[in-house]
Design brief:
eight-stranded antiparallel beta sheet; globular; 2OG-Fe_dioxygenase; 25% helix; 7 helices; 2OG-Fe dioxygenase family protein
């Protein structure tokens, strides 16, 4: 491992963690579909079709995401779509399964202690918006990760290792307490879809002090999924790498010059008809 631009590419073998042990302890099959993605895709489609009405769309976007009844102004725009566009609008389907968990990590008696925070059945989650049309500013609701996954000994080892990385990047801060949010995501593609992306918003920051933008746990029958990091006002590509199983990227995020994205995935062998990319992502925010 080496630090440059406060970026660390790592392999969990360096932590004496076996990728098989993570696969055994962390079930991705039990994750629920992220149905937020359907409505977010539909909102992006409406904005692309009705740029003159984007202010109205954004004003009613949260209600559209939350409620079963479609807000009046958005319904009017949907009704005005052409038949081919309506077919596209209603064809969106979920493409990610996900769960979320949170921890407080505190330095006590010369060691890091990882304590899980109990979350409600649907956790409210939002992210920093990089621009006005960035729909990540909307409140989404995610189910918590499975209890077995949350209490995985290997997951706690990973979190401690990442905190050590953070302290290595920020030695002057004397960090004692950190909030950690873990995202467990399965990006899934089948033969009815050309490609799917884990960053449909494009180049972005997550809005946390540091992040693990992706730690790849497993992937099958896909190509693409290239992690890209930029700096200098998003103009200079400084890293481009296809993460293999057990590899990840840890880097600074909020109030930095580092921006990130991941390219879409496609089926490597279309005859198999499905593929996936399973990852863990982590957000680290200073408490003290």
């Amino acid at each position: 491992m080496g630090i440059k631009y406060k970026i660390i590419q790592f392999n969990i073998n360096e932590f004496d963690v076996n990728i098989k042990s993570i696969k055994d302890e962390l079930s991705f099959n039990k994750l629920a579909w992220d149905t937020n993605d359907i409505k977010l895709s539909q909102l992006r489609f409406l904005i692309s079709k009705y740029s003159a009405h984007r202010k109205i769309i954004l004003q009613e976007a949260q209600h559209y995401l939350d409620e079963s009844l479609v807000p009046e102004n958005i319904q009017a725009l949907i009704s005005a779509l052409s038949m081919p566009d309506k077919k596209t609008f209603y064809a969106y389907k979920p493409f990610r399964k996900r769960g979320i968990s949170q921890f407080i990590v505190e330095y006590i008696d010369n060691k890091w202690e990882v304590n899980h925070i109990n979350l409600p059945s649907l956790t409210r989650f939002t992210q920093h918006a990089d621009h006005q049309l960035d729909l990540r500013q909307l409140i989404r609701r995610f189910p918590p990760m499975d209890k077995t996954t949350v209490h995985s000994p290997t997951l706690k080892i990973l979190i401690k290792k990442f905190i050590e990385m953070l302290c290595e990047c920020e030695p002057q801060r004397g960090i004692k307490k950190i909030e950690v949010t873990c995202h467990q995501v399965s990006l899934i593609i089948d033969n009815t879809t050309h490609s799917v992306s884990n960053s449909p918003e494009g180049l972005h920051q997550d809005g946390s002090n540091y992040i693990v933008s992706a730690l790849v746990i497993d992937k099958y029958n896909i190509e693409g999924g290239v992690s890209k990091l930029y700096c200098a006002e998003k103009d200079m590509l400084i890293k481009s790498h296809t993460l293999e199983c057990g590899e990840g990227l840890f880097h600074i995020d909020k109030n930095s010059t580092i921006w990130h994205q991941v390219t879409p995935i496609k089926l490597k062998d279309p005859s198999i008809k499905m593929g996936y990319r399973n990852i863990l992502g982590f957000d680290f925010n200073y408490i003290s």
